[in-house]
TrEMBL record:
InterPro entries: Cro/C1-type_HTH, Lambda_DNA-bd_dom_sf
SUPFAM superfamilies, sorted: lambda repressor-like DNA-binding domains (SSF47413)
Region called Disordered, residue ranges: 1-27, 88-117
Protein name, as recorded: Helix-turn-helix transcriptional regulator
Annotated Polar residues bias: 1-12
Length: 117
């Protein structure tokens, strides 16, 4: 069945049909991505199907979270327009895809220009 698969415990789980482009994300990348989207922990948690406390625990490194939790956070951020940048000279990072800037809360360019009269 499309969209469903059995997990390791034999239970059915719903999948969004795509996996994150990389299996992990750092807490710093998560915080930076939220800042780019102007999201608080609660908004990210709700969209990822998690509690804001879980988001806080991951970002603050207070406790280890399950890989599937990190996957859910990352996938939610990617669907909102975040691109995860591979580790380079300055380490891993994030950036906002331009076509998703409006969805993330930024005003479209036309909102800044006067309307023709």
């Amino acid at each position: 069945m499309q969209g469903r698969e059995l997990n390791q415990t034999g239970r059915r789980s719903w999948q969004l049909g795509r996996r994150p482009s990389s299996p992990s994300m750092t807490p710093e990348q998560c915080r930076a991505a939220r800042e780019l989207l102007d999201w608080n922990r609660q908004r990210l948690g709700v969209r990822a199907g998690l509690s804001s406390q879980t988001v806080y625990a991951f970002e603050s490194r207070r406790r280890t979270v399950l890989p599937r939790t990190i996957d859910a956070l990352r996938m939610t951020l990617e669907l909102a327009g975040i691109e995860f940048v591979a580790e380079g000279g300055d380490g891993p990072g994030v950036r906002l895809r331009t076509q998703h800037a409006q969805d993330a809360g930024a005003l479209p360019p036309s909102a800044h220009s006067p309307r023709p009269g």
